[in-house]
Design brief:
Blueprint (H helix, E strand, L loop, with lengths): L2 H7 L2 H13 L10 H18 L37
Helix pairs in contact: 2-3
Protein name: DUF1315 family protein
Pfam families: DUF1315
Organism: Acinetobacter tianfuensis
C-alpha cells in the first residue's frame, strides 16, 4: 500500500484512534505498540493532517506569534542582566 492509498482509507475517526494509540502507546485492545508501529502511526497521522487540516490545527503546531518590524518583547528583564558565560569544569 502506498501513501496515497493509505490516505484514501483514513478518516477523522481512524486518525483519532491512531493519535490516541501513539499517545498512550497501546492499541484500543490494550496491546502495546512496537516502536515501528508507533513511528508508522505518527507518519500516517502527520500525512493525513497535512492533506486535510489547516496548519494551525495539525499535531505539533506551535503558534510563534508575529512581530512588526522594530517591535520588541515587553519582557526586557534580560537587558539589565550582565552576561555571564558558562564555565565548564
Amino acid at each position: 500500500m502506498n501513501v496515497e492509498q493509505m490516505l484514501a482509507v483514513l478518516d477523522p475517526e481512524i486518525v483519532s484512534r491512531l493519535k490516541t494509540a501513539v499517545e498512550i502507546g497501546k492499541w484500543p485492545n490494550g496491546v502495546a505498540l512496537s516502536a515501528e508501529q508507533r513511528q508508522i502511526c505518527m507518519q500516517a497521522v502527520y500525512a493525513w493532517e497535512i492533506k486535510h487540516l489547516p496548519e494551525t490545527e495539525r499535531s505539533g503546531y506551535i503558534d510563534r506569534g508575529t512581530k512588526e518590524e522594530g517591535e520588541e518583547c515587553e519582557d526586557d528583564h534580560h537587558k539589565h542582566e550582565e552576561f555571564k558565560p558558562i564555565k565548564f569544569v
